[in-house]
Amino acid sequence: MKILVAASEAFPFCKTGGLGDVVGALSQTFSRIDEHEVVLFLPRYRSAGQGAFSFKAVPGNFLIPVGGAIETASIAMVHWGKITVYFIENSKYFDRPGIYRSNFGDYEDNDERFVFFSRAVLEGAKFIGFKPDVIHCHDWQTAIIPAYLKTLYRIDSFYVKTAVVFTIHNIAYQGMFPKETLLKAGFTWVDFTPDRLEFYGGINFMKAGIVFSDAVTTVSPSYAEEIKLKAEFGRGLEGILKYRSADLYGIINGIDDEIWDPASDTVIRRGYDAKSFLKGKSSCKKSLQHECGLPENKDMPLAGVVSRLDVQKGLDLIAGIIPEFVDKIQFVILGSGDSSIAESFSALSKNFPACVFFKSGFDETLAHKIYAGSDVFLMPSRFEPCGLSQMIAMRYGSLPVVTRTGGLKDTVRYDGEPKDSNGFAIDAPTYTGMHSVLGHIVSLFKYRELWNAMVKNAMSGAYSWSKSAEEYLKLFAATIQKKSNL
Predict the structure, then answer these.
(1) Burial (CB count <10 Å: 0-12, 13-18, 19+), residue 297
(2) DSSP-derived 3-state class of residue 63
(3) Is residue 193 within 8 Å of 187, Cβ to Cβ?
(4) Can you give the pTM of this predicted structure?
């Protein structure tokens, strides 16, 4: 199978969050299964690769219409394992400090930037002679590729047999722009209807992906149900998702189990696995407490947070409840984002230095140490399409504390019986629910046999990309077959 993956970011080349991690790891996993031929298309941002890769220019260039102008695209390539990564180059759109935004907010021409990129992906594949069996598009930045295939490219013989699958990573970010973007993209007013591209008087890139793709996926089975049935999750797209429910699939994400492996992690104080975690986690906890200036107390639970500071993640709730538990639980928090939440954590760390440590920003090394050294990992999200952190935490034996939503519901088991659980869960992110579950954790932590049984359950789970990638490949094959039968 010839697979073209189109995305706005992929680790290790460019990344702002979970999307980059998922696209990079999933693409690599595709290439390792049954010798599929996989190419990845990305924009050539100023920071792409950051000097760690040797780029080779593909000779020549090609033209892309954007509104009334004609822009020039060129391609640089990198061999990454079995994958060839093609970077679309255009200094006007991509030679900037940030990927999507500057310090002053989102780039005002993001519509043009990703119109250009999406069209350049299709023209670029023709330019290099790669005729895909399936194109896998990710989130709003590439969501108009399916629309192009069904409109401007519908009689293009190069793509006549190509199927397209669109994956929603977070429906909260939809790529909504004024109606004039329709013309920038090269569509006509015939396409500006409620059943196609129009969305409350404007154009919605993500809606385009849902409407025009042969199949639509999202990153967990529970999230797939939530976004088509509940307005608070579907964000205005629940109607079209329900209409396309026969073609909507939920496939849980995985994690890179080579990067996130406590047995081989060279960053943490002592490696361990499901059989040796007693000594390993104890050593890592002691090291983390020392580094964060907390008392080295093995009998007090240590709660970790590695997150974007956002109300979505329920971190305002955590900040509000910490004062109730400063004499019962230690807290180590790493993250950046919402300034008011950051200020709350900063104040707590100053007021309770023996129990609360907070570091603003992101520190990859400290993140590993928090996963390894914490006893529980706090993640009471208000919504969570999938979540990777809870799976990383479980792999490191840190029991996640989550709400029953999206991928958290699909990965964390908690029914009140420790021997059958791999974490803790509450029905909704409320003060009462969090207070109750943290109180339960304080009590249960004293019963180490039960606690250790939960840790073993968590560490014994399967969190790699292999199973998920197989599900995607089966869907690709079925979608290609269905298209060929039309």
Answers:
(1) middle
(2) strand
(3) no
(4) 0.92
The verdict on whether omega for the bond into residue 12 sits within 30 degrees of 0, i.e. cis, is yes
Distances in Å between the Cα of 60 and the Cα atoms of 29, 69, 118 are 31, 20, 19
Handedness of CA 147, 148, 154, 158 (dihedral sign): negative
pLDDT in tens, 383-414: 999 999 999 999 999 999 999 999 999 999 99
Strands 176-178 and 202-204: antiparallel
Q: How far is residue 382's CA from residue 223's CA, in Å, rounded to a whole number? A: 12
Contact between 222 and 435 (Cβ < 8 Å): no
Phi, psi of 360 (to 5 degrees): -80, 145
Domain boundaries, given as residue ranges, for the chain: 2-254+466-484, 277-459
Confidence (pLDDT) at 280: 96
Helix (H) or strand (E) holding 125: helix 110-128
The residue behind tokens 């002691």 is 286
CATH of domain 2-254+466-484: 3.40.50.2000
Q: How many CA atoms lie within 13 A of 382 on its CB side?
A: 15
Instruction: Give exposure, 46-77, as e/b (b: 16+ Cβ within 10 Å).
Output: eebbeeebebeebeeeeebbbeeeebebbbbe
| H/E segment holding residue 78 | strand 69-80
- With 90 as the cut, is the pLDDT of residue 417 above it? no
Q: Which of 397, 391, 374 is nearest to 454 (CA)?
A: 397
CATH of 277-459 given 3.40.50.2000, 3.30.160.40, 3.50.50.60, 3.40.50.12500: 3.40.50.2000
Relative orientation angle of helices 448-459 and 277-291, to the nearest 10 degrees: 100
Tens digits of residue pLDDT in 229-255: 989 999 999 999 999 999 999 999 999
- The full length of the chain comes to 486
Examine residue 262 and say whether the peptide bond preceding it is cis (omega within 30 degrees of 0): no
What is the DSSP pairing of strand 163-168 with strand 134-138? parallel
Rounded to an integer, the average pLDDT of 432-445 is 97
Are the CB atoms for 324 and 353 separated by under 8 Å?
no
Q: Which two tokens stand for residue 88?
A: 């679309």
pLDDT value at 51 more than 80 = no
